[in-house]
Amino acid sequence: MSNSSSMPQFLLLAVADRRELQLLHFWLFLAISLAALLANGLILSTVACDHHLHTPMGFFLLNLSLTDLGCICTTVPKAMHNSLWNTRIISYMGCAAQAFFFLFFISAEFSLLTIMCYDRYVAICKPLHYGTLLGSRACAHMAAAAWASGFLNALLHTANTFSPSLCQGNALGQFFCELPHILKLSCSHSGYRRELGLIVVSVCLGFGCFIFIVFSYVQIFRAVLRIPSHQGQHKAFSTCLPHLAVLSLFVSTATFSDMKPPSISSPSLDLVVAVLYSVVPPALNPLIYSFRNQELKDALRKMMTRCFSRATTCLFSSAQHSLCNTLLAQPAF
Q: Is 166 strand, coil or helix?
């Protein structure tokens, strides 16, 4: 990180020139981030407190909610701050930290989605071996591998991107510090070559995960279609469709962001696509899972009912206690 002295700060993409649009952007991001924090917080609380959800899928869903919270907390607060105070500045170290943590959480999320696909494959295609293949120790090892792979991937890419000298200005074409936009500022061709090598390795690993996911779902759908009862088929599909929807949203938006033709590229389109794959999925993932997962819906309803009843009891108890104190304070006639 020796560039911090020569490049003390970066300029992020301005989402709008007019003050009204900047404030609209602030309130929109505030609403999305609060929705994501509330929804993922409910998922975390429900899975942690309800013993019926202490299953491999519940454990991986808890980890997925952590990655979603990480993505939101990495990119959105700085964008909201810049819109509210009409600035574009982010420090060199702040930019490096933001780029690292965003790639870390995104990489870990893709690994977790791959593991969750394996969970669905074992549950439907090899149900008799589910307890053996996905025991508590195996789940912990797989989750640790997902987080470790995300950390290593983010560390290598971030260190390689920020190591070369940056001499092509300090303006980034994105509302947060994204590594491809920072790499465009590099003076060194060796940095491009090293990053290209790392990208090839990452793409090969990601493509391998994608092939595994496709193969797993082919086997899952073949097994589901052999179930004789329509009720059994519906139950099996209900456990797979949320994961498939989340995976499709994540992969399609990220792929379009990286593979879109330069001819259709523009700051406005880049901003919209970046929001679609970095901000929208963390807010939608809990809704997708809670909408199709009956056990999770029941647990959420039970927890919210319990919290509401306790709040009501506490409120009435406080009101009665206050009334008693008022009556006792009055003089007797």
A: strand
What is the rounded CA–CA span in Å between residue 281 and residue 287? Answer: 10
Residue 11: strand, helix, or coil: strand
Between CA 171 and CA 13 the distance in angstroms is 7
Residue 79: pLDDT band with limits 50, 70, 90: confident
pLDDT digits (tens, 9 = 90+) for 306-316: 766 666 666 66
Distance, in Å, from the CA atom of 331 to the CA atom of 311, rounded to the nearest integer, reads 32
Residue 234, helix vs strand vs coil:
helix
Question: Does the structure show a pLDDT above 60 at 3?
Answer: no
Query: 3-class SS at 89?
Result: strand
Share of the chain above pLDDT 90, in %: 11
Nearest to 45 by CA among 308, 304, 305: 304
Contacts of residue 3, defined as CB under 8 A and 6 or more positions apart, other chains included, come to: 92, 162, 164, 165, 166
The candidate with the shortest Cα–Cα distance to 210, out of 117, 148, 109, is 117
Within a 10 A sphere around the Cβ of 291, how many other Cβ atoms?
14
Residue 86 above 80 pLDDT? Answer: yes
Radius of gyration of the chain (CA): 24
> Between 122 and 162, whose confidence is greater?
122
175 token code pair: 């509302």
Mean pLDDT, all residues of the chain: 79
What is the token pair recorded at 77? 């607060």
- Asked whether the beta carbons of 104 and 307 are under 8 A apart, the reply is no
Select the more confidently predicted residue: 306 or 181: 181
Other beta carbons less than 10 A from residue 52's beta carbon: 13
Q: Is the pTM of this model over 0.85?
A: no
Residue 158 near residue 100 (C-beta atoms within 8 A)? yes
Q: Residues near 2 by Cβ (< 8 Å), separated by ≥ 6?
A: 163
Output the six-digit token pair for 79: 């964008």
AA letter at 297: K
